[in-house]
Amino acid sequence: MTSQHIEDHPKDEGTDTEDATLPPTYLVLQVTSKIHEQTLRWLIDKLKGRKRDGGGELIVMKQPVNTADNFILHISASKLKLLEVAEEVELVKSDRFGKRREFTVSQLEDFVFDGMQVDDLLTDSEKQTIVRHELENIRALSEDSSLPGYPTHKFYEGQSIFQACQHWGIVTKVYPLHDHETLKKLGRKWYMSLFAQQPLGECRLKLIILKLYYVKKAYGKGDSILKNIQDISHLFCVFDDLYGAFKKSGNYKLG
Q1: pLDDT for 138-165, tens place per residue?
Q2: Which residues pair with 160 in a beta bridge?
Q3: Domain residues for 127?
Q4: Are both 164 and 233 inside the same structural domain?
């Protein structure tokens, strides 16, 4: 099957695409070029579908590719979706009074202050983490007995469809799409300031946010004791990274 055989997927009625403007890409999925047409359509439906129907309520845009290449899907989310999931995962943010507490949509005005826009509330790393969270939590329903087009690929109810597709080689790669403007600014700090301290802390802190999220996620699943022991070791590595990042940036004091 070629990319020309898959036309652009129509927008679902319940999907907000921010007044038809293209939203920024937060994650990129690479899908095998050998995928069956019905499988790709079904996967896109799952990504975009309503949550009550087992979908992720995400925004999906297919990148035009050459015939022999893998399919590239750009994954995004509406502003409202990002805020709703931020509340769902109990994301901690600073409010107008300087207090760090769990974000709630109903008290949005407490978290957007001093000329901030709603878009400024969540960092790019937080948005990517939220989209990844929703992607991994698209679960197989009771009627999803097998992957369409692949009758031997069986689902069990509640299984993560995304993780199963990775295991079967349907989704071959997933990676975040970085904000080029942010990278340019970081690049200027890195190679334009010959005698200034390199921004190692800024680079490492972006990775630490993701580490903390996945360590917390593993604890929430109630995994085995051995797995939790492994996560404790990961947590110590995170604290070590935090100390190293602040040490590199010079923003720390001892005693």
Answers
A1: 999 999 999 999 999 999 999 999 999 9
A2: 139
A3: 3-80+123-176
A4: no
Listing DSSP states for 208-227 in one string gives HHHHHHHHHHHHHTT--HHH
Q: What is the pTM of this model?
A: 0.64
| Residue 224 pLDDT | 44
pLDDT band at 255; cut points 50, 70, 90: very low
Provide φ and ψ at 89, rounded to 5°: -90, 5
Residue 248 Cα to chain centre, angstroms: 27
Whether residue 72 is found in the same domain as residue 153: yes
The 3-state DSSP class for residue 154 equals strand
Q: Looking at the chain, list the stretches that DSSP marks H as alpha helix, in order from N- to C-terminal side.
A: 37-48, 79-88, 124-136, 161-167, 180-191, 200-220, 225-249
Q: How far apart are CA 130 and CA 76, in angstroms?
A: 10
Domain boundary among 143, 176, 209: 176
Cα dist. 26→61, 81, 237 in Å?
11, 13, 26
Question: How many Å apart are CA 10 and CA 213, to the nearest integer?
Answer: 33
Q: Round to whole Å and give the CA distance between 46 and 161.
A: 9
Question: In this structure, are 76 and 134 located in the same domain?
Answer: yes
Q: What mean pLDDT is predicted for residues 53-81? A: 86
Cβ atoms of residues 26 and 60 within 8 Å: no
What does the block give as tokens for 47? 């990504």
